[in-house]
Design a protein that fits this description.
This protein has nine helices and seven strands, in the order ααααββββαβαβαβαα. It is α+β, with helices and mostly antiparallel strands.
């Protein structure tokens, strides 16, 4: 990995590539083999022969957001438009991985903004959620990153993001509480400053069949 294209909201210090040697795919595959042995398994048995390769391929896909940028993602899909009413895309599937245990975070995002002369292609809102979701995350940061990305790209009157998710690190291990949901929000601009605008957004997403 080089530092020539550091993704949005990730610094060189976060990646720590300047002080660590390059890690090859073969190194990663060997690391998975070591983990399997440490768990008491035999990585050479038939069912596990290709597991290290599959795990590495899977992890690379699930963290591919580190290698994406907003410019590449948008591909020019920001347009001038004289509208100033709320734009809301709700029930966007979120699939991420918690940075503490590398276990799944599964949920939905509701994203709204009030244009100020510019709009974005609706599918790009889902793509932004996807890009930041495909990184090791905490839900609070993921919510803020989506809001800050839209605020920076469009300079709208305001942005609102609510994410509702269940964390497998709470369901499968630890306190083991199936059915628990975490809700986080990030409000920018008029959504933070104006109670009525914020209430309108919350009222609209409450009609979502997935809202908890």
């Amino acid at each position: 990995m080089t530092l020539s294209k550091i993704p949005d909201f990730v610094s060189a210090n976060d990646l720590k590539t300047t002080s660590q040697p390059a890690v090859t795919e073969a190194d990663m595959i060997q690391a998975v083999r070591t983990l399997l042995i440490g768990l008491g398994e035999n990585p050479d048995r038939e069912g596990l022969l290709d597991t290290p390769k599959r795990v590495v391929k899977s992890l690379k896909f699930l963290t591919s957001g580190y290698h994406q940028s907003l410019d590449e993602l948008l591909n020019g899909a920001v347009f001038s438009e004289d509208v100033s009413e709320m734009v809301l895309v709700r029930d966007i599937d979120i699939f991420s991985s918690c940075e503490h245990h590398i276990l799944p975070i599964l949920g939905r995002a509701h994203v709204a903004y009030i244009p100020n002369g510019k709009v974005i292609g609706l599918s790009k809102i889902a793509r932004i959620c996807e890009m930041y979701g495909r990184r090791l995350q905490v839900q609070e940061r993921l919510t803020a990153q989506i809001a800050d990305a839209l605020q920076g790209l469009l300079k709208p009157l305001g942005v609102a993001v609510v994410i509702e998710a269940t964390h497998m690190c709470m369901v499968m291990r630890g306190v083991q509480k199936p059915g628990s949901w975490t809700t986080t929000s990030a409000m920018r601009g008029i959504f933070a400053d104006d109670v009525k605008t914020r209430q309108e957004f919350m009222s609209l997403i409450r009609h979502s069949p997935t809202f908890h």
